[in-house]
Design brief:
This protein is α/β, with parallel strands linked by helices. Helices cover 49% and strands 10% of the residues. The protein has two domains: 17-162, Rossmann fold; 167-380, Dehydroquinate synthase-like - alpha domain (Dehydroquinate synthase-like, alpha domain, Up-down Bundle). The longest helix is centred in the middle third of the chain and has 26 residues, at 194-219. Mean pLDDT is 92; it is low at 370-385.
């Protein structure tokens, strides 16, 4: 008896990408083909930065525009945005800014059945690419994510616009992107499925690009090598989750991020900074629970890399050096909740173990004693060297 084929919906990439220096200035006709009454959504600084560029471009095509400012991608914000769509009679959403503004714009377009254009103003995440949106509380605590029906209809990656963002945003984007290897390989490194194998190998390539080029890129904003790192954080990082699915997108590093967002003192740090710290925590878990010596080597390699480019290595680096034990336990319990991405690890993690890993991210590898007979997990392989 033949088994019915399983349906595997894939949302791999935006339908169209415009990429280049000052490319936004020539994007008017492409945007105009998608709608005649756009609603532009973004954070305050993003709207201020993009309005002088975008408004005359859209005016040339007789597109009446309205704007809506967002600070959080929350249920309350989305309710206000739906009202703005109705008031403006919008038939096109343009999202601009960082991850939360882009997520809000994508989710609004998804809910309203409208086309969506994403114009990132920093390279801090791959949100401009993906068919995914994270929902937060009004206070900024992660609640859940939503899978969208498609990637954006148009992504406009303007290097001159990205270059106006603080360098810290690109550093955070590097942290968020490099997590793809450590998460995808530990959850899916032994998969025999063709597309998942492809996603894991893309994650390996992404990691290697960032190891090799990040430091030089940060020293030369706007240069060719800087543009290549921006492509890695905004574009290539999005490809991996699109091809490999959820299990290749988020595991323990993002689970740690999600838990930390429930500590108010963490709200001064960026998404990618918390995710980068979460990679160190994930590797510590592999060391502690599996006795994985290659995980220890990988963590030492990352600590050196983080020192070079300025990513956080400890809770103190995240501004969380004075949190209470109760706050740390709350974050650990949220990160290990039954529906958490941390359970894509090939071993069980409980809050006490996660707390221990969180406070020991910089422990020297030679100070660790490993139980005999434990094998290495998928994320280490030969790549820990």
């Amino acid at each position: 008896m033949n088994q019915a084929p399983s349906l595997l919906p894939l949302t791999i990439a935006p339908a169209q990408i415009l990429r280049g220096d000052k490319i936004l200035a020539s994007a008017g006709s492409t945007i105009a083909r998608l709608g005649t009454s756009p609603l532009i959504i973004g954070g305050d600084r993003a709207l201020q930065a993009i309005a002088p560029i975008l408004s005359p471009i859209l005016a040339q095509h007789s597109l009446p525009i309205a704007t809506a400012q967002v600070s959080e991608c929350s249920e309350a914000t989305l309710g206000e945005l739906r009202q703005a769509v109705s008031t403006h009679q919008a038939n096109l959403i343009i999202g601009t800014g960082g991850g939360k503004a882009l997520d809000a714009a994508k989710l609004l377009a998804h809910q309203c059945g409208l086309p969506i254009v994403t114009i990132p103003t920093s390279a801090a995440t791959c949100a401009a690419w993906t068919a995914l949106a994270n929902i937060y509380s009004p206070e900024g605590a992660f609640l859940y994510d939503v899978t969208l029906s498609r990637c954006p209809d148009l992504l406009v990656l303007d290097y001159s616009l990205i270059a106006t963002a603080p360098q810290r945003t690109l550093v955070a984007g590097i942290g968020d992107a490099i997590a793809k290897w450590y998460e995808a390989s530990v959850s899916s490194g032994t998969s025999e499925q063709t597309l998942i194998i492809a996603a894991v190998q893309q994650a390996r390539i992404l990691r290697d690009i960032l190891f090799q080029k990040s430091a030089a890129a940060l020293e030369a904003p706007g240069s060719t090598i800087w543009q290549e790192v921006v492509d890695a954080t905004v574009l290539l990082a999005g490809v991996i989750g699109g091809i490999g699915g959820a299990q290749c997108r988020t595991v323990a590093a993002h689970a740690v991020h999600n838990g930390l967002t429930h500590i108010p003192a963490s709200h001064g740090t960026l998404h990618g900074e918390k995710v980068a710290f979460g990679i160190l925590v994930q590797l510590r878990l592999e060391e502690m629970i599996l006795g994985n010596q290659l995980a220890a080597a990988a963590r030492q390699q990352l600590l050196k890399f983080y020192s070079e480019i300025g990513l956080p290595q400890t809770l103190d680096d995240l501004g969380l050096g004075n949190i209470t034990l109760g706050e740390l336990r709350q974050a650990a319990e949220i990160a290990t909740a039954p529906n958490s991405d941390i359970h894509r690890l090939p071993f069980t993690v409980i809050p006490d173990q996660l707390m221990a890993a969180t406070i020991s991210t910089t422990v020297p590898a030679d100070a660790i004693r490993y139980p005999a007979g434990n094998s290495c997990s998928g994320s280490q392989l030969e790549d820990a060297k």
